[in-house]
Amino acid sequence: MEIAITTMQVRGAPLIGVSAAFGIALACNDNVSDNAIERAKLSLLATRPTAINLAWAVTRLCHALLATPEHQRKDKAWDLVQSMADEDVSINRRIGLAGLTLLEPIDKPIINVLTHCNAGWLATIDFGTALSPIYEAKAKGLAIHVWVDETRPRNQGMSLTAWELEKAGIPHTVISDNAGGLLMQQGKVDCVLVGADRVGIDGSVCNKIGTYLKALPAKVHKVPFYVAAPKSTLDKDFTFANQTFEIENRDERELFRISGINKEGHLTEVRIGEAKGYNPAFDITPPEYISKLICEDGVFDPSQLRGLLL
Hints:
By secondary structure, the protein is α/β, with parallel strands linked by helices. 41% of the residues lie in helices and 17% in strands. A seven-stranded mixed beta sheet has the order 3-2-1-4-7-12-13. Its EC number is 5.3.1.23. It comes from Methylophilales bacterium HTCC2181.
């Protein structure tokens, strides 16, 4: 499971969390001792440091297992991870219904939403976070169109979000990462809706690199900027002034190589250049740029988040 997470065969904060929990359960198939569980925990925690859901899920599961007699741990692990997976589905559906209340009042023939990266069911067990309100809007019969950032360098928007929306029959248009500001300036975006890998107690949002660059023009052009994430993404120690975690820097080669399908239908990789690169995977958006945060408990202002942890 460590390899799958590190190489992004599974990605998206909620899915990483549940997958890491399954990694602990898999480890329990071989050894249920305290030391073995602790080793598995540390190995999984080292895979991707920025998304807090991973640490939340692994810590939660290991705490429960270490309080369980050894002979019961294997079965307990599998029961708990299945419960976590089911819980994720329920939470994301509730996020969708809460987010729908922000889309329904938009009085336009077609609601235009801009999203960044992939925060749909490919990033969770089902429904997604930022895409969940869009799926609920579609089910409600609202006319909706999605501007999909390509999301360089791994192109999660172009390859994953666009694919999801195509399967769901939701009209969408892929745009370059630099086009969002122009679209907002031209009045072609009614709201921005993104997910999060970590949310600070002050409402700061750590998400896929490029999120901050969408929040800036949204603020200038008075376009609502919404963030959808489960409460497990909240970090009580993180504020914009106190960034207590590591922002993952990925292999610089991702900047210069693109994977795609060739004319024979085979996955291939194309190198587009070689130079020194810098490839941070996430950025941080200050709370004053966030209009509302959507979680399973409803819709909140950034200043209200402390109450969710009481």
